[in-house]
Amino acid sequence: MFTGLVEALGNVEEVKRGKLIIRAPFEDVKVGDSIAVNGVCLTATKIDKGLLYFDLSEETLKRSNLGLLKPQEQVNLERALRAFDRLGGHILQGHVDFISPIVELTKKGEHWSLKIRVKEGYEMYFVEKGSVGVDGISLTINKVEGLIIHINIIPHTYENTNLKRRKVGDLVNVEVDIIGKYVISYLKRLKKDSLQSLLNRFYESDE
Q1: Do 104 and 113 touch, CB atoms closer than 8 A?
Q2: Predicted TM-score of the model (pTM)
Q3: 20-79, pLDDT tens digit by residue?
Q4: Which CATH number fits domain 98-183: 2.40.280.10, 2.40.30.20, 3.60.15.10, 2.60.40.10?
Q5: What is the pLDDT of residues 95-130, one digit of tens each?
Q6: Record: fold of 8-79
Q7: How far are the Cα atoms of 3, 37, 94 from residue 34, in angstroms, in the given order?
Q8: Cross-strand bridge partners of residue 48
Q9: CA 157 vs CA 5, 58, 128, 139: distances in Å
């Protein structure tokens, strides 16, 4: 499990044939550790002189932007959350739901305005002031307009993540809020009359 607080930027050394090699600044990582790379939970299979080696499954390549990486490209890195750590962002599993394009990344005063077009069918998972994982960064949604989510990026986040190298059209990894996933999944499984009964009880509790 992760929090969406990027710890460091890594540099891609090589990505091919289902293998990814990242140069990272971590000194206490060991083989078998879970590390979020652009928000994707990967297992370190080898460590050698600052290089971290990962295997990429077909599902990972299909769901994320890791297969699009090029040598020397920067990626966001976060080690797995420890039981005694602060949960400073929000709960992220490192299980990317889809990739989507940036439609705006504009500086407004000291901050940046980020707009992302989300995949059709997933719009129900995004709410104003809710959380979203973008390339492994925990971000707050300011507004939702159809398939477009609006996000404000503070200077610290911009300067300490790979957002400073992003541009309009780039595909980013998106992970929706896991709590929202479970709630919507539960509601979908309810029969229509059961759902109406649940809503009636909810409205009655407000009276």
Answers
A1: yes
A2: 0.88
A3: 999 999 988 999 999 999 999 999 999 999 999 999 999 999 999 999 999 999 999 999
A4: 2.40.30.20
A5: 999 999 999 999 999 999 999 999 999 999 999 999
A6: Elongation Factor Tu (Ef-tu); domain 3 (2.40.30)
A7: 13, 10, 10
A8: 51
A9: 9, 31, 20, 9
